[in-house]
Amino acid sequence: MKKCINPIRFLLCFPALLLLLLQIQGHTEQSLFSRVIDANKGIRTIDCDISQFIFHNDTVEKFSGRYRVNEKGFFRIDYEHPSRQIVLKNQNGLSWYFPQEKLLYIIQEKGPHPVQPGINPLKDILNTPDPRFAMHYTGTHMYGFFTSSHHFAAKDPAKGLVFTIISDAETLTVLEKAITDLSGKEIIREIYSNYRKNGSRYFPGRVDVLARTTRGITRNTTFYRNVHLNRNHPDSIFFIEIPLNTTKKYIDVQ
Amino acid sequence: MKLLTVVRSCVVTIILLITAGGSLFAAEITRIEIIGNNAGVNLDRIVSRAPGSFSERDIRAVGTAITASYHALGYTTSRVDRLVLRRDGTLQVYILESHIRDITVSGVSGGKADKIRAFLAGFINQVYNRPMVLERAEALKREFNLNRVLISPRNYRNSPDVLISVEVQESTVGNVYGGIGIEPIYGIVPSLGYYYPFTGTALDLHGEAGYREGRFRKVKGDITFFIFSDDNSCALYFSGGGSRHIETWEYQDYTYTVLSWSSAIGIRAVYRALIFDISLREIVSGITDYYIEEYDDYDTRITASIVYADNTDLMDRYNTTRISASVSGGKSTMEDSGYSIADLDIRVPFSPAVWFRIIPRAHVRYTTSHKRFFWSYVYDAHLLGFFDDYTASRFKNIAGIDFEFELFPELLYTGPFINSGYFENELQEWDMQTGTGLKIRLKYKKLHIQSYYAWDISKNPSKGGLYIFAESRF
Q1: Which pLDDT belongs to residue B220?
Q2: Cis peptide before B349, with omega less than 30 degrees from 0?
Q3: Which of B238, B379, B458, B462 is least enclosed, having the fewest CB within 10 Å?
Q4: In this complex, is the C-beta atom of B67 within 8 Å of any C-beta atom belonging to chain A?
């Protein structure tokens, strides 16, 4: 005998099923973004070579050197190009030392968040319970031709900003982060690419940051090579002895 | 950590002076009260952390998170001033919003400085917000024809508020722009333009020529005067110009010369990424060796066009999508029953990877006129790979795709391309041709060069040729 679907039962069941699906969807969205956050955690220290290209107003500046950072947020960059320079961030603050010129710039940070290069694209989200980052899953799309990606967005209508994060659907690594205004005008765009597996962690080989600044659009492209993750650095590398005859200059950074 | 107990208006408060490396401290916080959030930053998620047990570190994190929220939204000079824990368990967070109290302008004469200050006056007494100020600075640049605007917030009379220092550099000579190209129809094609914006109006002068096989096959120049609306979103313009073209009729195997003078009036409006334009143009042409020795043509043409370009939205201008469509209709001595022309141009680049860009492009042109005079060349800059062929078409459809691989970021890109044309030839028979080749794009300072080595796909690559398109704006 042919079974018929009772339309009244269907009408009753369908909204219930829809409600259930929506709840599951809401739960899945939250857990999916939590998984993205988890996937981008776990890097305690970095030791690598970097090459940075800063493009601005038709000019390009190149910097290269060795970059080390620890879990306390201390970092040290030993630049070899364009000249020998050491940038240090430790508990005493940020400083920039030019050994050949015997010149030390001490950067006085007034803000609570010091200038600090980092590699975890979701660092702000991990450290800050910021309402902006109540990210909503907006779909899974292809990123390029071969990569499936999850898209998340948060809108701040009061300030007219939209925050988007695109993560690789398989590895959950962050591929892009962007801030745009409500009309779609890009304000900041960060692109993380050339990911390689380093132990159990993925690490980008290249990070491009495009930003609108007072002086126009700047692009900062950084290549990371010879990457060693979670290697134990002695704290002593984040401190250097400065010769007594070094000239000290102070710079205020707001 | 130091704890101070202060009796103030019968309310016992404990002021937490938080210092690094303090001893352990825990407090039951019943609620978090935000005081001084006038900028409207949404702090609900932070406030909803209470009630709960808070360590010193947790309390400090509340302050840091609130300051970070402000900074992330561009209120970079505002911050949490102090945290006060009341006996009833309320954690009061005092926010110090930093207001713009004054604006100073340097780099220009007094009168203009006053105008610039007036342009920015809306910010005074507002909470300093970096993105908003930057956006206004961009508008300032356009409005006052400035080369550079540098805006720095500074402490206002040792208070937490700010004084905005605006340093500007005037563009005193307008903008000169130009380029040079090598293309198969007109040969070496230099062009030069000069754009000078006055207050509320602007003048644009443009000229170009094409030199090939020992003679100028194209010389043209025009002048356009724009009158802008108050908000710069709309312009009325008047233009006039002259040109002399030597055109080749491939099928008839002869050339004819066109000397034209034109004048036009039009309206152009900009809405977000869209540009609308409608114009009425009168063209008077003296045509030599076209059927008859001398021929005068009087052409009245109305043109409507729409352009979509998201170049103001994107920071990487090479990823700009550009779609333009136009329709013209008119009546001339040659086409006394009227004619129409439709054009469509599409360029939609996208980047599957940061080092790789794909640029699909298409071009369509159609005219109802059966006169060669109204047709356009097939093998122009839209369909590359064919040389010494002046075939013109009444209806042509061209599609292509360019691939660009990054050799050096922002500087050098290269990759293959392919383009095909499906068109009505001069015998009004449908034909299809495909060209392919290699493209190199170089951007060096203000110079932008695109070079193509292209050939007919049905022939040997050695039969190919070179196209160079270079442009610059000073």
Answers
A1: 96
A2: no
A3: B462
A4: yes
